[in-house]
């Protein structure tokens, strides 16, 4: 019996010790071992990422990134705006040009990384706007919040006694508040009123406008197209893919969608400041054109194109983006035949329009019994100096045509134009050419208008007959610009509304007193810091005196429009006040 009891006690003691050890293990801070999954799971991570994406912080970061991403587009020439500048830039920066191409810096606004930023911003705004809109609709459908139990704790408060009936006072207050365009509700012996809902409307309009702005940009990137064309004075072109110098289309806008029209450059006027500290600064660029839409020349119209003042034809706009000079040159071969004659555009290289260019005479003919081609390269100087700097070479002193001159070098041989391979019309490949020599030195000449240069070795003559001006145009079709502009204007209007419209609430309670008479209480609460709520409450108290005149022997009540010393409600006030019926404050909200 004793042994049995002892064994039982030993088993009980061992069990107790095991429970104690288990309890000790449960008190440890080490993570519990489990074969099951840990963490918030895939769904939890997706929910967390969605909340982060739709938060105010991430939206501002994306907006900032979008602004930063647009900077390269304004500093680096873009293919969709000016193909000539892009090619010139690449020729001047041969080292970094391939890197820029891989980074899509010549097509910033259609690049993958730029599109990713504004698509994420688009989704972020959508994730904020939709729930906020439904919440705001719910607020509009609900009655204003009922009056708190203790109105004396409101930031602005007024009270007095009157002999008027309590129900009549409440009815009069309801009428006055409705007359002041408050949303007022009479129930439970008190009037609850609220005003300033346009503040939240402005907030939503601002976000919707950003949504429209991004949508306009997105539509423009999908359904827009741009082309470039250089025209010398007196030349014209039809807006077709074969006559454009370059064209960049999009997914929903190709070469078959080009607007049909014809444009001819009749004249070009350029003026520069010729004195003072800003000498050489541009003052006027005007292209005088004639054009017609469609294919009917009888509908010819006159127009002009200036910087930032494009010509709108159909659904396209023609912008003036550049200008320069085109020397008019006549070349005669050894037999005295005219083998080349016309204006050749030279491309500006600096602010004074020092321009470089080449003339390729493919049909020169034969020289010494074999087929020969002639190449000329050089500079056009609108205002040439008396002598060239030996280090800088030919440079213009002024962008205007005060003293024009043409500096040329001559080459003979094979231009490579018959090979069928494409060539840059502004560059001369001298691989199979030999520079003409005179007295053991490279043959070159500085010509004034109407001067003739006799080429060495009987290759003929080159006559500088004068010059014309050329203009470079960008033909743009962007259907989303109107949407983006409307979104920008609406965003400004919504922002003004959200900043200057004040959301406020007013409660009026008239209660019959046990000793006779009625106690009238007014209280106001502004959703933002503003003195307007006190002014409105004072005006309402004055108007209510007609229906509830104050008695002369006032009891010890708080003074009219008394503002608490601590300037706000206490925790007890918040406990007694009704829940806010406006859109709830949320850390992920864009407000």
Automatic annotation (TrEMBL):
Q: Specify residue ranges for compositional bias: Basic and acidic residues.
A: 1-12
Bias (Acidic residues)? 544-577
- Ranges of biased composition (kind: Low complexity): 578-591
Provide the transmembrane region boundaries. Answer: 58-76, 112-131, 204-222, 482-501
Q: How does it sit in the membrane?
A: Multi-pass membrane protein
InterPro entries with a match to the protein in the record: Cyt_c_bgen_Ccs1/CcsB/ResB, ResB-like_domain
Q: Per the UniProt entry, what species is this protein from, by scientific name?
A: Kitasatospora putterlickiae
Task: From the Swiss-Prot or TrEMBL record, give the protein name.
Answer: Cytochrome c biogenesis protein ResB
């Amino acid at each position: 019996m004793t042994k049995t009891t002892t064994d039982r006690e030993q088993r009980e003691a061992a069990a107790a010790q095991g429970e104690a050890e288990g309890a000790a293990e449960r008190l440890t801070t080490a993570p519990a071992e489990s074969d099951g999954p840990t963490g918030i799971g895939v769904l939890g991570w997706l929910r967390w990422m969605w909340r982060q994406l739709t938060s105010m912080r991430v939206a501002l970061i994306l907006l900032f990134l979008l602004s930063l991403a647009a900077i390269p587009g304004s500093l680096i020439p873009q293919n969709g705006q000016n193909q000539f500048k892009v090619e010139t830039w690449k020729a001047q920066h041969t080292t970094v040009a391939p890197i820029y191409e891989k980074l899509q810096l010549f097509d910033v606004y259609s690049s993958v990384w730029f599109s990713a930023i504004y698509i994420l911003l688009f989704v972020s705004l959508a994730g904020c706007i939709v729930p906020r809109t439904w919440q705001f609709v719910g607020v509009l459908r609900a009655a204003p919040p009922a009056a708190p139990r203790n109105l004396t704790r409101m930031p602005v408060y007024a009270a007095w006694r009157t002999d008027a009936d309590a129900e009549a006072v409440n009815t009069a207050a309801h009428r006055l508040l409705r007359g002041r365009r408050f949303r007022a509700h009479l129930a439970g012996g008190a009037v609850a009123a609220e005003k300033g809902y346009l503040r939240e409307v402005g907030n939503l309009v601002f976000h919707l406008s950003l949504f429209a702005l991004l949508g306009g940009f997105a539509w423009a990137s999908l359904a827009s197209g741009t082309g470039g064309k250089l025209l010398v004075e007196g030349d014209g072109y039809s807006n077709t893919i074969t006559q454009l110098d370059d064209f960049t289309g999009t997914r929903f806008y190709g070469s078959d969608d080009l607007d049909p029209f014809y444009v001819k450059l009749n004249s070009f006027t350029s003026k520069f400041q010729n004195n003072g500290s800003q000498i050489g600064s541009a003052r006027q660029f005007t292209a005088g054109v004639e054009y017609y839409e469609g294919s009917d020349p009888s509908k010819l119209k006159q127009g002009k194109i200036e910087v930032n003042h494009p010509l709108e034809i159909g659904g396209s706009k023609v912008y003036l983006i550049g200008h320069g000079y085109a020397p008019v040159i006549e070349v005669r071969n050894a037999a005295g035949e005219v083998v080349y004659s016309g204006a050749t555009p030279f491309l500006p290289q600096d602010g004074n329009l020092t321009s470089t260019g080449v003339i390729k005479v493919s049909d020169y003919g034969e020289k010494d019994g074999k087929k020969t081609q002639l190449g000329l390269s050089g500079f056009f100087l609108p205002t040439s100096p008396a002598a060239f700097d030996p280090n800088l070479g030919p440079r213009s002193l002024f962008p205007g045509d005060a003293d024009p001159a043409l500096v040329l070098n001559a080459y003979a041989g094979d231009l490579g134009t018959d090979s069928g391979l494409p060539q840059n019309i502004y560059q001369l490949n001298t691989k199979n050419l030999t520079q003409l020599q005179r007295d053991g030195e490279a043959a070159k000449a500085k010509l004034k208008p109407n001067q003739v240069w006799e080429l060495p070795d009987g290759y003929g003559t080159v006559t500088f007959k004068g010059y014309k001006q050329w203009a470079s145009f960008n033909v743009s079709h962007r259907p989303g610009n109107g949407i983006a502009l409307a979104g920008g204007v609406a965003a400004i209007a919504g922002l003004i509304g959200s900043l200057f419209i004040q959301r406020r609430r007013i409660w009026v309670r008239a209660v019959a007193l046990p000793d006779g008479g009625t106690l009238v209480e007014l209280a106001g609460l502004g959703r933002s810091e503003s003195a307007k709520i006190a002014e409105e409450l004072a005006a309402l108290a004055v108007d209510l005196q007609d229906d509830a005149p104050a008695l002369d022997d006032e009891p010890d009540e708080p003074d009219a429009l008394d503002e608490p010393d601590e300037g706000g409600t206490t925790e007890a006030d918040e406990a007694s006040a009704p829940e806010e019926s406006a859109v709830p404050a949320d850390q992920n909200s864009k407000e």
